[in-house]
Amino acid sequence: xxALVLLHALPLxxxxxxxxxxxxGALGHRVLAVDQRGFGDRPSGExxxxxxxxxxxLARTLDREGLDRVVLAGCSMGGYAALAFLxxxxxxxxxxxxxxxxxxxxxxxxAARRRAFAGAMRDPAARDRLVEATTPVLLGxxxxxxxxxxxGELLLAAESADPEAxxxxxxxxxxxxxxxxxLRTTDVPALVVAGEEDELVSLAxxxxxxxxxxxxxxxxxxxxxxxxxxxxxxxxxRLLAGLAEExxxx
Length: 250
Fold this sequence. Notes:
Elements: E1 3-7, H1 18-26, E2 30-34, H2 51-64, E3 70-75, H3 77-88, E4 93-99, H4 108-121, H5 124-134, H6 141-146, H7 148-160, H8 163-174, H9 180-184, E5 190-195, H10 203-212, E6 216-221, H11 228-231, H12 233-248
Parallel strand pairs: 1-2, 1-3, 3-4, 4-5, 5-6
């Protein structure tokens, strides 16, 4: 069976994919959910914040696991890391899924907001208020109202994340390159998954990423915000299983 590699969103770690790891594994797939630097069990290291560093980390992980070409899925920050991987390590994916990911680089204003966020995360006096104010927006309005337990789990995870790792990740994302060019040359089966209630990545931005992919298609999930693997885990698992089947074809 085709191996799937899953890259997590900020400020979470690889455990955000637990439903997909279980569901895809039950179907016989090899599934590797990877912690990025500073999250889960992976130390931050000494390198300057960069998605290129994350991409090269992933290439080394695949080499250690004996994996040449994989189905790669990334959610939000994980999607940005996937774009960096496509640029630096072409030819290593069979299929691609981008969830809640814009392909375009940040505007100057958006990058400045990310850097301000990073600064606030490094300020103990501001950090708790920032996390409390911004974390709920990761979920759609439907999830916030109908699934308070998920919101509670998400708040706990955000409060538990290493503030310096979160700050460095925001700086790395702020500095990322525009990814539309690399998507235009990624001729593999591809999905762009958007939450209808995503307050951080617009439907137009998701559609632009799907349109750039030669074999891309857009899937919009109703009642879902910025974290589809947590808000609609069964649908995401089904979509990834179908994508893996497409990627396995000659």
